[in-house]
Design a protein that fits this description.
Chain lengths: 198, 291, 803
């Protein structure tokens, strides 16, 4: 099955800082809840893993991440991640296009366009929750992203953001409290509804 | 369909259950009826290292009424809800909804607490409890707290339950006279989750609808309270046109997952249709025209 | 001569043909005493579990067994590499193709078998499956048969590249399997060119699965000391499996024993030989221990034996009065990744050319193209003869489409085109000889029973109010009883069947058959045939099937062939014994054989009351006092090769009410009249019809193996795959006429599949009829609420008055 997600979120940091941060793949990966880069193979290829946790459901995906393209002009990054779950029964591929848009007056917009393709048991029996998983991961990703970029700066705001980064849970499982924070952060933002085919 | 290995605990008291959950933390899951958790374990989507079975804790079972509030133990099975003459008399919406859950085998084991605490948007009791203004009693290492069902759900499989906390009971205020309620559920077959379902609970005062709650099942990341739809009808002399307006408002909050039950358009329309039917039947019941 | 009360009483005591004897099988099933494959436990038995592909199409780059083998309790991890030295990594299919036993370098459908783990228990095996590390390189999957035939489509079967045939004639594309034609193309085309009226409709028989309650499985046990291989298996055809196993393994057929114990439903799912069986057998031979392999429900639905997936274009040419002049059908048949449809006819589309149906259609042409896709292999006959459900669906849908175009009543158009009773035996344009039938009588009986005119009036009133009510008709002809060996064989073995009867000295008997019951009640009905033919009470006749070491060779039970072929063999065997009994009776009574009359359970000397010998007495004599030169004993075997198929038929009517806001359809009435010739046990026939109609209801209203574009099966469990319960199932009303088959010894035809074959188009016609006044000509199956609602919504029928 395939889930397509299109989202755009305001980032409370300058376009320049945001773009700089976006090019650090290990840092960006760390914004994905439960994800980390385990090895840099070469300039554009990485190995990593993601632990997805949703209620009682847990899945560990290990795989490769490739930077397909970097457009400095447009501040746009293309990534493809491919992974197989540790049991060999499901696999997932994510084609991600992320861009930093300068909205003027120091306002920044993070624009993401993701296509997640899932095969195997998770696609056959987990379809009911796939959109939710993808949506929740992406939502948490932007919160983390925003916090980390802001934390790069200086001042009280940055310190607050840094504190939040420190609190960031290792997995998407999260504590309810943090979850509420995420929800609160996202309320009023204009994320598009995900579309699903499959 | 063989689950991974796990350790099985069967505490006899609530305190033991809470301390087991505290001890094993994220590694442990509570086992009630098991009809949501065990299939996930058989698919190996869920692999808890410890299962804490609540079936031996007698204090979690039973239905009583105290001062206008129905107390339902979390481990009360669906079939016990259906068979309860107290519920039939005081709050027939609960047995009506329970009868529409899954199939007879599942209803023999499945519990109201499991259905509510699992956090699955396709479960039926969450919307029903929202419609009934029910409170949920949670018990954890720090003691007991009571939270409203409306607000308990944060996302798919995410609830207000803290680690180590167990849902132990449900408190439902007995609807006053002049009330009417209905749960309308469209499903493909017996045993299936809702394509869409709607719980409606209202109070009439003469021709005027004093209060109305509407909540939807399986058309969003959680059960959804249809606030704007409720506002359309509250305080009104309800007619078809107002119902149509409320239905449109209810449909507007739907964001269903796409699966073989239908696409977004169908499931949204069905949420509307079930809401329309539930409102109309609840009205008739409140007016005493239908049982 | 009037039958005396005494004779009637003796007949009654026999419990023979025509009596609704209670099923002999039921006491053990009802009390949980059935013995299914998974009930079998043997000392030292180990368990197999299969590593399956998550991808529908991928290359296997490597398989690492180390972690799995390191798990305590794991005995072996078997892959294609291990099977190669034995030349067992591929196996022949019944359709002339080959199928990978374990994936050899690439996988071509989701859940394809990649490796089998053998472990001490089922739990360790399941744990070890997760530890087998398979590295895949994903390839683009093809799930749609139309896409599969595009010039640039990915090649699914690289092993066939460069080969211009795959066992069933010329291929025209790498993903093409065969083209098969029947009838006269040029003549048919010219009729269409000059026809007053033509209609054309595209329709799909969706991919479905028979989904028996018991999944497939086996226990393979190689006794290394005796050199015997015994396999307990859920097989609808144990004898042919023994032949195949012997051919594949090199173990002499005399050393192979296949036992089909109690079987929890087959419906075509248990005809084929699946990779799991082969690997379990290999594992047992290698380990010298019994190996059990049992599918779970997901494995059953996703890998062993789908049915249908026929993408059909039907066309009819007629005159303005609706007299059909020609039929043309083109089919794209999706056979999945390997052409392993288990069907024994000599034609790649089985008996599909019975698609002229119950109608006298002078010209017809059919073309079927089989293609590969990245879906599970199969194409079995799900409660039907081979491709007959598809055939009946296309003609029964098309005749409704024609009626609609001409505005002729749907019952009337059938009457105008029926093969008339006096035309039998009837030769169809596509080459069949229909044995017997009386279609108008059957239809009229149904129309009268349901007050057809009244229903149409009610429908008109409802339509005026905007309500949706459909009336579906189906007047089908089935073709069953495979089959004459001139038309059907399995790997060269003709499609006869067999019965061996042994009458014991005290007059009771045992009979063994080459068929195998899976719920049909053979232990009950065969005994009734023997009772009537041989005068031994059915209660004293034991029926045994399924053990290849004791039963005579037979081709098994599927395609409604047990009564037409096995039942005929039984009658013939009993008659052979009765002939011998007559000679013994003549000897005992010291008269000529010609002076004896057979009377229910005894021979009587003509005109001499009291001079008689009962079967009981004759049986005793068979073991101590036979005529000079006669062998002792009362035992025989019959191998029956039928001269023709039989052609059961029926007239069905379905009334459905459709909720125009939800799309839900409720079958208010279903009236099924079946004619299966002579009726052996009416109660069992009723039960079979109820079961077949329920499966027809399942297919028409909900069943479908749904795939997404990646080739993931989305309906691989009973949450999403519709298996109706008593809750959903409508009430069935049954009726019958009796038109015996002229060539069957008992006049019987076979019945269990008619309700499935006829029921599906009947329900589908009802749903379509509900919309026919709105210009809708065809809505595809399954008629789920969601699918029906899409039509409703597109027509705007769900709009409410804005007040």
């Amino acid at each position: 099955m395939q889930v397509k997600l299109q989202k755009s979120f305001p980032i409370e940091a300058s376009p320049g800082d945001s773009w700089q941060f976006l090019q650090d793949i290990s840092e960006v990966a760390a914004c994905v809840p439960g994800a980390r880069i385990t090895e840099q193979v070469d300039e554009t290829n990485y190995k990593g893993q993601v632990v997805v946790k949703l209620g009682p459901v847990t899945a560990t995906f290990k795989g490769d991440l490739e930077v397909k393209g970097v457009d400095q002009e447009k501040r746009e990054l293309q990534l493809t991640g491919k992974g197989m779950d540790s049991k060999g029964t499901s696999s997932a591929t994510m084609d991600l296009n992320v861009a930093i848009q300068d909205e003027g007056e120091g306002n920044t917009q993070l624009v993401g366009d993701a296509t997640v393709t899932v095969t195997g048991k998770l696609a056959s029996f987990g379809a009911r929750m796939m959109t939710q998983v993808a949506d929740q991961i992406l939502n948490q990703f932007v919160v983390n992203f925003s916090n980390r970029v802001v934390a790069m700066g200086e001042g009280a705001e940055a310190e607050a953001a840094a504190a939040k980064v420190a609190e960031q849970p290792r997995e998407i499982s999260a504590l309810a409290l943090i979850w509420q924070t995420v929800i609160g952060f996202l309320k009023g933002l204009f994320g598009h509804k995900p579309s699903t085919s499959g | 369909m063989i689950p991974g290995s796990f350790e099985y605990h069967r505490p006899a008291t609530l305190d033991d259950a809470v301390s087991l959950l505290t001890e094993y933390g994220d590694e442990a899951r509570v086992l009630a009826g098991g009809h949501s958790l065990l299939p996930m374990m058989k698919l190996r989507f869920a692999e808890p290292a410890h299962l804490v079975d609540l079936n031996d804790i007698d204090t979690l079972k039973g239905i009583t009424e105290e001062q206008g509030v129905l107390h339902i133990g979390a481990m009360t099975t669906e079939n016990e809800l259906i068979a309860s003459s107290l519920l039939r008399e005081k709050c027939p919406l609960i047995p009506e909804a329970a009868e529409l859950i899954a199939d007879p085998q599942v209803r023999n084991r499945g519990t109201i607490g499991g259905d509510i605490a699992h956090g699955d948007p396709s479960n039926d009791h969450p919307a029903v409890m929202m419609a009934l203004d029910a409170d949920l009693v949670l018990r954890g290492p720090a003691g007991e707290r009571v939270v409203p069902a409306d607000g308990f759900y944060l996302g798919t499989y995410y609830t207000l339950l803290e680690p180590g906390e167990i849902l132990i009971g449900i408190r439902v205020p007995v609807p006053p006279s002049g009330s009417g309620a209905s749960y309308q559920k469209l499903k493909r077959k017996t045993g299936d989750y809702a394509t869409a379902a709607s719980a409606v609970c209202l109070q009439m005062e003469g021709d005027i609808c004093r209060k109305i709650n509407i909540a939807l099942t399986n058309v969003g990341p959680t059960a959804l309270k249809a606030d704007e739809a409720m506002q359309v009808l509250a305080g009104q002399n309800i007619n078809d046109s107002l119902v149509g307006e409320a239905v449109r408002k209810a449909m507007a909050i739907c964001d269903p997952a796409v699966d073989l039950r239908g696409d977004v358009e169908y499931r949204t329309h069905m949420a509307g249709e079930m809401t329309r039917r539930a409102i109309n039947l609840a009205l008739e019941r409140a007016r005493g025209n239908r049982s | 001569m009037a039958t005396s009360a005494e004779t009637l009483e003796r007949e009654d005591r026999l419990g023979g043909i025509g009596c609704s004897r209670k099923r002999k099988e039921d006491p053990r099933f009802i009390q949980g005493k059935g013995n299914y494959v998974d009930d079998i436990k043997m000392p030292g038995m180990v368990y197999g579990d299969i590593v399956r592909s998550p991808y529908a199409h991928a290359r296997i780059k490597s398989i690492n067994k180390d972690r799995a083998l390191a798990l305590p309790g794991v005995h072996a991890v078997i892959t294609a590499e291990d099977l190669k030295p034995l030349n067992l990594h591929w196996m022949p299919t019944l359709a002339g193709d080959v199928q990978a036993v374990l994936a050899d370098e690439k996988v071509a459908f989701q859940n394809q078998e990649v490796a089998m783990v053998i472990a001490d228990d089922r739990y360790i095996a399941a744990d070890a499956v997760e530890l087998v590390e398979v590295e895949y390189e994903e390839l683009p999957p093809v799930v749609d048969p139309h896409a599969s035939m595009k010039p640039d489509a990915p090649v699914i079967r690289e092993d066939l590249v460069g080969k211009d045939e795959a066992g069933q004639g010329k291929r025209i594309h790498d993903n093409h399997i065969f083209t098969w034609e029947a009838g006269e193309k040029a003549a048919t085309d010219s009729i269409f060119d000059g026809a007053e009226i033509t209609v054309k409709e595209e329709m799909v028989n969706p991919r479905v699965h028979p989904c028996p309650l018991e999944t497939c499985g086996c226990v393979a046990s190689m006794d290394k000391i005796r050199g015997d291989l015994t396999v307990y298996m859920t097989s609808q055809a144990p004898h042919i499996v023994r032949t195949v196993v012997s051919m594949l393994s090199g173990v002499p057929e005399s050393k192979v024993r296949i036992i089909s114990p109690d079987i929890g439903g087959g419906f075509g799912n248990k005809v084929g030989v699946y990779p799991g069986y082969v690997v379990a057998i290999v594992a047992s031979i290698v380990l010298g221990r019994p190996v059990k392999w049992i599918e779970d429900r997901i494995e059953n639905l996703s890998t062993t034996a789908f049915a249908r997936d026929y993408h059909m274009t039907g066309e009819l040419a007629s005159d303005r009065e609706g007299h059909i002049k020609a039929l043309r059908v083109n089919v794209l048949a999706d056979h999945g990744a390997f052409n392993s449809h288990a069907q024994p006819t000599k034609w790649p589309a089985g008996l599909f050319s019975v698609c002229t149906g119950s109608y006298d259609i002078p010209n017809a042409y059919v073309r079927v193209d089989g293609v590969y896709t990245n879906k599970a292999p199969g194409g079995v006959a799900y409660r039907c003869s081979f491709r007959v459900t598809e055939a009946v669906y296309v003609i029964e849908r098309m005749i409704d489409v024609l009626a609609q175009k001409l505005d002729i009543d749907k019952a009337e158009i059938r009457r105008r085109n029926f093969i008339r009773p006096e035309q039998f035996p009837y030769h169809s344009a596509l080459g069949w000889e229909y044995d017997s039938g009386d279609y108008p009588t059957a239809l009229d009986k149904v129309l009268e029973a349901v007050d057809y005119e009244g229903l149409r009036r009610e429908q008109a009133e409802k339509r005026a109010r905007g309500e949706l009510m459909g009336i579906g008709l189906c007047t089908f002809t089935e073709i069953v009883g495979a089959g004459p060996s001139k038309a059907c064989d399995v790997l060269g073995v003709g499609m006869f069947d067999s019965c061996e009867i042994r009458v014991h000295p005290t007059g009771s008997a045992i009979a063994r058959m080459g068929t195998i019951t899976q719920g049909q009640g053979h232990q009950t009905t065969y005994a009734q045939i023997i009772a009537s033919e041989l005068g031994i009470p059915s209660e004293e006749v034991e029926i045994e099937e399924g053990d290849t070491s004791t039963a005579p060779y037979g081709l098994g039970t599927y395609g409604s062939r047990s009564t037409p072929v096995g039942g005929a063999a039984t009658a013939q065997a009993a008659r052979k014994l009765r002939d011998k009994a007559r000679r013994i009776a003549a000897h005992l009574l010291e008269v000529s054989e010609d002076d004896l009359d057979w009377d229910v359970d005894r021979f009587k000397v003509k005109g001499v009351p009291g001079q008689e010998k009962t079967m009981k007495e004759i049986a005793w004599a068979a073991y101590n006092d036979v005529p000079d030169g006669m062998e002792m004993g009362l035992e025989t075997v019959e191998y029956y090769d039928p001269p023709n198929f039989t052609f059961p038929f029926g007239a069905y009517l379905c009334v459905i009410d459709i909720d125009r806001y939800t799309g839900e359809g409720k079958i208010r009435r279903f009236y099924a009249l079946d004619d299966c010739g002579t009726r052996i046990n009416p109660m069992i026939i009723e039960g079979q019809i109820h079961g077949g109609l329920t499966e027809a209801f399942a297919v028409a209203m909900g069943q479908e193996l749904v795939f997404d574009e990646q080739g993931n099966l989305l309906s691989g469990s009973l949450l999403d795959y519709f298996l109706p319960t008593a809750w959903e199932t409508p009430k069935w009303e049954t009726d019958y006429t009796v038109t015996p088959s002229p060539h069957h010894p008992l006049g019987a035809k076979g019945v269990a599949e008619s309700p499935h074959v006829g029921g599906i188009p009947c329900i589908s016609n009802a749903v379509n009829d509900a919309f026919s006044h709105l210009g809708v000509t065809h809505i595809g199956m399954p008629h789920t609420a969601f699918n029906v609602w899409k039509t409703i919504h597109s027509l705007g029928l769900d709009k409410r008055d804005q007040t």
